[in-house]
Amino acid sequence: MTWQPVDCHAHSTFSDGALSITDVVERAAALGVRPSLADHISRDVAKSITSVADARRYLDALEQIDVLRAGEFCWHDGLWRELPDDLVRRFTHRLGSVHAVRLGDGTLVRAFTSKLPSGLTVDDYMDAHVASVEQLATEMPVDIFAHPTLVALPYRTLDVDLVWTEERETRIVDALFHAGIAFEISSRYRPHDRIVRRAIARGVRISLGSDGHSFDQVADITRPLAMARQLGVADADLYDPTRHGSKRRTAPVATAQQSDQVPRSLGRPHLVAADQSRRRRGRRGSARICRPGRRSTARPRRRSRRRRTTTWSGERALPPRAHGDARFSRGPRLSAMDSSLDRRSPRRARSRRTARLGALWTRRGRSFRNHDVRRHV
Hints:
By secondary structure, the protein is of the alpha/beta class. The protein has two domains: 21-249, TIM Barrel (Alpha-Beta Barrel), CATH 3.20.20.140; 308-377, no CATH class. It is 30% helix and 11% strand. It has helices at 21-30, 52-62, 79-82, 85-88, 122-139, 160-163, 166-179, 193-202, 222-230, 241-244, 269-281, 339-344, 352-356, and strands at 36-40, 68-74, 95-97, 100-102, 108-110, 144-145, 182-186, 206-209, 360-363, 366-369. The strands form three sheets. The protein has a six-stranded parallel sheet with strand order 1-2-3-6-7-8.
């Protein structure tokens, strides 16, 4: 299968985009890019999805076509905390963004405003910005950090070295690394090479995003892809939700065409382990499903004290041990009656413990395992 780049960040008319979801898919197909929709799900963005019910209708529409289902969430807005788990699992991936930073006095400074609080310096703003990114990485269960170098309008024209110091870049990259969040190379808000190199060297996964809102912007990830390749990132290492999965899932997710092949236990590790255990045991035994980190309260099944007198195949097992029976002696030799048993057996039971762990007894051409010939010790 030919590799295709994934545009993990694009918008439609469900939020502030100019194209319908069908137009976004067609535009991406024309450019040879795998499409995804990541509309704004926030109460703090104009023309956005502002409720849980709207988010559910949004996902209902996306599941009707073959497209990756994403959403862009603002860390300072609490709507992402209100989404129920069943709704969250329907996303193929999620993006977190810093559209506003919170200063020490609680004031929010939005990224798209030209009016800043009086007396606010670049250092004060950037310290608050880095703290906001660290809080996002700690609290938000997202897969991609959207446009990492997006800052307030008055600071975008300043020298990069003045705004982005080595310490600030290191703190952001470390936060993303420890949280397992991908670093987005955005077509709309292109990051400088130094911070991208630092993220790659730290081991942070790279994601491509057009952040497209119009026909010319959607699925245009030529520059991000060229930058990633120039900095030594292999195409297969670029973030792909269908290959690398999501933070809320334990296995790669599926698109609309692949959804019938996804197991019901996807994203629920405690059910995955239970399904595997059921397949191993069949219908025998009972095990209570227990989430990782919790001890099961199921009582162990009591073993019957009745000795099995027949094998699983219905054949008669060996008689119970009599006191002083030479066949069950701990000595190196067996009785003359069972000398043929000693010669034919691939393993010889030298102790009670080894006999219990699986010594294979052969008598008169028939095989018995020691759990069928149960000995009273």
